[in-house]
Amino acid sequence: MPSGGTANVGNLPYELTSFVGRRHEIAEVRRLLSVSRLVTLTGVGGVGKTRLALRVAADSSRAFDDGVWSVGLGELYDPGAVVDGVLSALNLREGPGAPETQLVEYLTPRKLLLVLDNCEHLVGPVANLAETLLRSCPDVRILATSREPFGIGGEAVLRVPPLTLPEARQRSVAGGGLGHYEAMTLFTERAATAVPGFEITESNEGVVAAICRRLDGLPLAIELAAVRLRVMSVEQILHRLTDRFTLLTTGSRGAPSRQQTLLGSIDWSYDLCTRVEREMWGRLTVFAGGFELDAAEGICSGGMTPEQVVDVVASLIDKSILLREETGGAARYRMLETLRDYGVERLQETGEFASLLRRHRDWYAHLVLRAESDWISSRQLSWTLRLDAEQSNIVAGLQFCLTGPHEANAGIRMAGAMYPYWRVRGKLREGMRWLAQLLAVRGDEPGLEQITALYVLSVLSGLHGDADASAIYVQRGSALAAQLGDRTAAALMDDAAGQHALITLDARAACEHFESSLAVFRDDGNVLYMIWSLSGLAAASDAAEDWARSEECQREMLALTESRGEFMYRGWALWGAGMGAWRRGEYSGAKELVMQGLQLARSVDDRTGGAGCIEVLSWIAVDEGAPRRAATLMGAAEGLARAGCSPSILYPRLLVHHDRYEEKARGAIGDRAFEAEFGRGLGMRFEEAAGYALDERGTTAAAVGPGSTTLTRRERQVAELVAEGLTNRAIADKLVISQRTAQGHVEHILSKLGFTSRTQIAAWVIERRQGEP
């Protein structure tokens, strides 16, 4: 159900530079979207399709109750993973059943806009998906960018033209100048960024106009030229361009004129780089989707010191070859696809390409293994955010491992170490897909890596609802473990057998398997594996109605995780402990425990654990005489379950309790009122549902301006911490929320107050304090 009042819902990126011109195109795209549910923007590379699509999407956000969502497909090369890419962009967890069915079921009742960006290399599968969504989801619209149309019924196509230009002989008229042309405006704005104070004058406007014409009005080419003002005059830039493009036209490039123009401008930017900058440009193309400095230093240094790498990266940013962004409190860098493609060609000429790919794989394999070894710690959240940001690079590393059996073992170790992350992010099919492919490439010799892979495959298959596949992987892994004679390998497969027994509702067998695996992991001192078995044993004991043993496991889990500052499994333990207290009739204590668990679940975006906590809070609400609130909470838990986050995967007996308490709530308020409140909860996003369950909604709000804009209690807390000078990361740590959530609160505060900086928030807080009696 549409949640209502969610015009700012979505995941559109912030614009890093000003948006110039395109008024006619923006109006036309919006008109096409009003009459067609699929609009495709086409055009050559560098013409600005993505920027135009994102600007139209942002301008149109209020028309879509359930948000505007951008799906970047440029780094996706597996046609079979297109649907999963959309699910991931929508922040949906992978549930049982076909991914396309899950996506259609989620989108059918929703009113939203999907921006499918960079589709040209996946036109077939993207077109098939678009056709399915348009046929099944009446209020979903799609805005796509591609170098070629999809060619399906109902598609409206707009070819994005270059920016407007003055004609060759055109001169300023009546003092109006030529600055109103889009290409001139773009050059001027980017030039002023490179050389503060630059402006179009009567003496230079003819030269700037000639530069823009020489570059055919292509935004990317103009931006590359404008940054050259740091070292050249506009006359020198025009002279160099004229010489270069005269040479280009005498040769045979075999490309359309505008593509020749873009290639020529990139060639020129490349030639004007130093040797070290050119080498770094080429090496940095090994990254997919962006990188941080530590990765550049570890993979691309070529003998340079870290300080030298920083200097070269900074100079490439100055030349507009790299873009700097901030994600999760860390600086990241990326290259536009057109510049990356160019750099790959240059890198392949050096003979360094293959070795660089292997260094890239090795570095990210090491990163993933470090994350796994450090998972049960206070750094779990920061590792989760880092792995979120590095998904494209990790996928590229795994892809490299499919090149042959000699590389596959490294890939299997890497994929096995990704299991905790895939679990918290609900990426079940992604894990299954990679492990199955890597095992198919690997040789037959048994090893612990292979058995770990079969363990993960079995668990993920079971969570995905495929009990038969889960059983097959248990059998294969158990046979290999016996052949290998390794007790840890055998214990892993015991744990997998316990997970299989749990999903097939054989609680007693599950308990036996988990007790066996737990004993080995406890002897080994492997805390992560211990927690896996403790979690399974707690759930299996609960299903077997051995509540004393279940609570023993939860207490041990809580002790292990709390002492290390871990988040997700501690949240699970608090959830389970809360259920135990609730079962004993200790409602106040149960509520406190479960609310703590929900706070932790929210901090790492663990929606399965969060849904379980919300479900238990709905039962407590019934017992406290608040059936309407209980119905809303039940709806919120059900909404998360439908999005692939069903808590009954962990605790099957939840369904029994749910049915009993739903009947009580219905009896108290009647079916009609129950359905209304349930529907309200069903339409909530996880963040909204968690805030409601934690009593962060409906509190007295502070008026903040003449428009009666209000801040919630949580937003006021965040504003106070901003005024104290805390960063988003520090705010997240203090409030036990994720850094992404803290950032979202700050953005909402800025939007509500009409501010543009944290300094303004601080000043507002201080002013309010002074005004209080």
Automatic annotation (TrEMBL):
<feature type="domain" description="HTH luxR-type">
    <location>
        <begin position="704"/>
        <end position="769"/>
    </location>
</feature>
<dbReference type="InterPro" id="IPR000792">
    <property type="entry name" value="Tscrpt_reg_LuxR_C"/>
</dbReference>
<dbReference type="InterPro" id="IPR016032">
    <property type="entry name" value="Sig_transdc_resp-reg_C-effctor"/>
</dbReference>
<dbReference type="Pfam" id="PF25872">
    <property type="entry name" value="HTH_77"/>
</dbReference>
<dbReference type="InterPro" id="IPR058852">
    <property type="entry name" value="HTH_77"/>
</dbReference>
<dbReference type="Pfam" id="PF00196">
    <property type="entry name" value="GerE"/>
</dbReference>
<dbReference type="InterPro" id="IPR036388">
    <property type="entry name" value="WH-like_DNA-bd_sf"/>
</dbReference>
<dbReference type="InterPro" id="IPR011990">
    <property type="entry name" value="TPR-like_helical_dom_sf"/>
</dbReference>
<protein>
    <submittedName>
        <fullName>LuxR C-terminal-related transcriptional regulator</fullName>
    </submittedName>
</protein>
<dbReference type="InterPro" id="IPR027417">
    <property type="entry name" value="P-loop_NTPase"/>
</dbReference>
